[in-house]
Write a structure and sequence with these properties.
Layout: E1 2-11, E2 14-24, E3 28-33, H1 40-47, E4 55-60, E5 63-64, H2 69-73, E6 76-79, H3 91-101, H4 108-118, H5 134-146, E7 152-156, H6 164-177, E8 182-187, H7 190-196, E9 199-204, E10 207-212, H8 214-219, E11 226-233, H9 236-244, E12 249-259, E13 262-269, H10 276-286, E14 290-297, H11 300-308, E15 310-315, E16 318-323
Length: 328
């Protein structure tokens, strides 16, 4: 349904996108994940025809967006990060306006009624958009994207600023839309993408760095590898060097001092290697107190960390990323 080939975008000497290629089939949800400023919105804007690419091509349902822009755009419903709402209109007036703007030929009353029921905004259809909550405004934004029943939906950061309940409601809606539409969901929030996406594309600094199902990303390159996080009191240079010398250890990262004299280390080890007993034995022999230690397999968050050099930090409903080494 969507074919993106070798897409690049330059702003002067700044490379916003560099040779990005991917495809999306029918009736699927593609999660487009990356830190803020990675190039997600630029990609969405090129796919929808809002801006042009410096290089490469985009096809929607076999229509090239440069050669057949009108035919391609007819197949797309778009929700930008800031929904294009006219707040002085009621919900009903606004959807009728969008219906006319898109020159939709489907039976108006039946079509708009179905959209309102699907997005669960029937009960606010007579209210001014200005008086709606953030969650309902996002629903109205998704409703306008559905007008005309386009096979492709592009949703850019659809849950930003919503409370936890609103986020869950929008996630469930997006999941349902994926049964009858090709949905591209752009987000910097890992749980949002993980909860709804059939495939995940990770983009960093304008480059596509991963493309696969959540299972493939979690169990691909690092399948079976262990991650052990330990807090040890002792000289960080000596501790770090000693941990790296343990058989089966691939790498050791120092996440800094967490309390006076106590440092946190992340130990990545080979398949089948659990370094905890070795760490405990060495620390005991050297007189280094261990304050905590836990081990588990690599998660999607760990994959994201390795591919982007950032780590995910959850803060209730929202999320952000910090550079490696700044973990709290």
């Amino acid at each position: 349904m969507i074919e993106v080939k070798d897409l690049s975008k330059h702003y002067g000497e700044n490379m916003a996108l560099s040779h990005v290629s991917f495809s999306a089939g029918e009736n699927t949800v593609i999660g487009f994940l990356g830190p803020n400023g990675a190039g997600k919105s630029t990609t969405m804007n090129i796919i929808t025809g809002y801006i042009s690419a410096s290089e490469g091509s985009v096809e929607i349902g076999g229509h090239n967006t440069l050669d057949e822009p009108n035919e391609a755009k007819k197949l797309i419903g778009y929700l930008p990060e800031i929904p294009p709402l006219y707040t002085d209109m009621t919900v009903e007036e606004y959807l009728n306006f969008v219906y006319e703007l898109k020159k939709v030929t489907l039976p108006r009353k039946k079509h708009l009624k179905e959209i309102c029921e699907l997005t669960r905004i029937t009960n606010v259809s007579g209210r001014l958009i200005a008086n709606l909550s953030k969650g309902y405004r996002q629903r109205v934004g998704i409703a306008q994207a559905l007008v005309g029943n386009p096979p492709v939906l592009i949703l850019d950061e659809p849950t930003v600023g919503l409370d936890p309940k609103q986020i869950i409601d929008v996630r469930n809606l997006i999941k349902g839309l994926g049964k009858n539409h090709t949905v591209i969901l752009s987000s910097h929030i890992l749980p949002e993408v993980q909860a709804v996406a059939d495939r995940i594309i990770i983009i960093n600094k304008g480059r596509l760095v991963a493309n696969g199902t959540p299972y493939e990303l979690e169990h691909g390159e690092h399948k079976g590898e262990q991650k052990t996080v330990v807090r040890i009191e002792g000289n960080p240079n000596e501790v770090g060097k000693t941990l790296r010398d343990i058989q089966g250890v691939l790498s050791v990262s120092n996440y800094g001092q967490k309390e006076p004299g106590v440092y946190e280390y992340e130990i990545d080890s080979c398949t089948g290697v659990d370094p905890r007993r070795s760490v405990f034995g060495i620390a005991s022999k050297r007189g280094w107190p261990i304050l905590s230690m836990a081990s588990n397999e690599f998660s999607l968050e760990d994959v994201f960390l390795r591919l982007t050099g950032s780590t995910y930090i959850s803060d209730n409903a929202d999320a952000s990323y910090v550079k490696d080494g700044a973990r709290k």
